[in-house]
């Protein structure tokens, strides 16, 4: 596992990173077999990270040798990204530009990327379907899309376990999955809603994973003080992530899809 994903941060990113890394490896092999492979740098993918912030995924992807364009609306996040990629020694492979999902092609190339990351974006945009269509339009033929979004079930479970039963019920009834006016998350998705958005955008869903099924519920002091607890929890998260029964209670949902 790459350094940016450890130690505690790995609980939030480990499942997605392992799935994404495998997808990048497969895309490298597929790109080498394409008729236009001679026009590419062997083993190097063009990756677009929409809402990529300070580079939680861009940096480890660049460390694999790929070129990453990060699009984010926050100047502060892009400043942190610039500093982070310099410290990681990948400044020549990561480019940060200010923009968002609605005006994506003002700053990114339509149909220019082998892999597009759409992580933590659909919760915040005015029109998730439009945001997803733009992400898909940025893909090259046979490209791969990685979508990560807030899950409804995880929020309901967390509010209930905290004793906020009315808020938990409100989240269940609310069309956007919000538990009240003080909820900082604009929108949440069920697994069915998220996969439907992806398929309606013209992609074939390859895998769905539940992310942070247990990590947000386990007391931090337990993970920090018990020997081997972090590694055991990581293994539990990985085992549960692929099981549909746990998707409905995950804090986040990850969908990996391909453009046919």
UniProtKB/TrEMBL annotation:
Example GO molecular function: methyltransferase activity
Gene Ontology biological process terms, A to Z: methylation
The keyword Protein transport belongs to this UniProt entry's keyword annotation: no
Alphabetized UniProt keyword annotations: Methyltransferase, S-adenosyl-L-methionine, Transferase
Claim: 4Fe-4S is one of the keywords in the record: no
Protein origin, superkingdom: Bacteria
Boundaries of every Methyltransferase type domain copy: 48-145
CDD domains reported in the protein's UniProt record: AdoMet_MTases
InterPro entries named in the record: Methyltransf_12, SAM-dependent_MTases_sf
Protein's recorded name: Methyltransferase
